[in-house]
Amino acid sequence: VVLGLSDDIEEAMNLFSRARTLAAYASFPDRWKAMYLSADALIFKGMKSQSTLDISEAQALAQIAFDLCDITHFSRGRVKATYATSCHSLYSYTGSEDLLHRAISLYRDCLAASPAQDMQEAVTALSNLSWSLLLRFRALGQIGDLEEAISLLSSCLDTIPRSYADYHNLLQNFANLHG
Q: Which pick of 65, 94, 163, 168 has the fewest CB atoms within 10 Å?
């Protein structure tokens, strides 16, 4: 762990917890935001510490944030992506197929809703969807999931420039699909 990183994470978690307490009133307009930011931080913390408890709490908060965020709000896509990531992450610890199916469905929605001008958002959704499809293929053996994952990443690699910042990560994901 980087020096001070765990202290920073703990301080952030304490601040988010206080924000959730202040936002507990149903009439508070940004209540969803406190839940979303807490979930995002808990996913990071849980993945670093491999804590199922943190990931589980993140998933619950992300679902609440998603349910509370107005359908027309410009951040709803990011809230949905965090909810999907929390489901995907929790699946990694629990093996619950329901969580994986939910993550795939949410990632599909994120991909469909990502703005054409936001390549980063679309590539992230596509990469996460592909990875989730690979996990489902490994769990259930449905060849269609593997074929879809390969097709999605292949078309992405054909579309984005090689100078794209995360191009190497996409290539690694593509190699993982074939390995």
A: 163
Stated length of the chain: 179
Give the Cα separation of 106 and 100 in Å (integer).
Answer: 10
Q: Give the pLDDT score at 170.
A: 77
Give Cβ neighbours of residue 141 (< 8 Å, ≥ 6 apart).
Answer: none
- Candidates 90, 66, 89, 68; CA nearest to 78 is 66
Residue 168 in this model has a pLDDT that exceeds 60 = yes
Angle between helices 52-68 and 31-49 (to 10 degrees): 160
Picking from 52, 64, 67, 59, the residue whose alpha carbon sits closest to that of residue 84 is: 59
Q: How far is CA 64 from CA 78, 80, 86, 176, in A?
A: 14, 11, 12, 33
